Amino acid sequence: AGETFRAAWTGQSVRALFDTAKSMPPENPGSLSDATYASIVAYVLQVNGYASGETPLTTGDGMTLR
């Protein structure tokens, strides 16, 4: 979280973060629905200070984190 998150993810796409989230949990990767992973990514972005958009986060290719 915080500066550690920004250092690791600045310049990377939200899709890359989504794909990383889908590798969890390690013992059963991809076991959650895409909607659940999208919700997790949205939450991680929110707690790290990224503003919410006007449309729901989708699982398509998306913006680059700044």
Task: Give me some keywords for this one.
66 residues; mainly alpha; globular
Mean of residue pLDDT?
Answer: 86
Q: Total number of helical segments?
A: 3
Order of helices and strands: HHH
Major sheet attributes: none
Computed CA radius of gyration, to the nearest angstrom: 12 Å
Helical percentage: 40-55%
Query: What percentage of the residues does DSSP assign to strands (E)?
Result: under 5%
Q: What ranges have pLDDT less than 50 throughout 5 or more consecutive residues?
A: none
Helix/strand/pairing class, anyone?
mainly alpha
Tally of DSSP β-strands: 0
Quick one: overall form? globular
Distance between the termini: 15 Å
Characterize the structure shown.
With 66 residues, the chain is an all-alpha fold. Helix content is 44%, strand content 0%. The longest helix is centred in the middle third of the chain and has 14 residues, at 34-47.
Quick overview:
The chain is mainly α and 66 residues long. It is 44% helix and 0% strand.
Helix-strand blueprint:
Blueprint: H1 3-9, H2 14-21, H3 34-47
Helix pairs in contact: 2-3
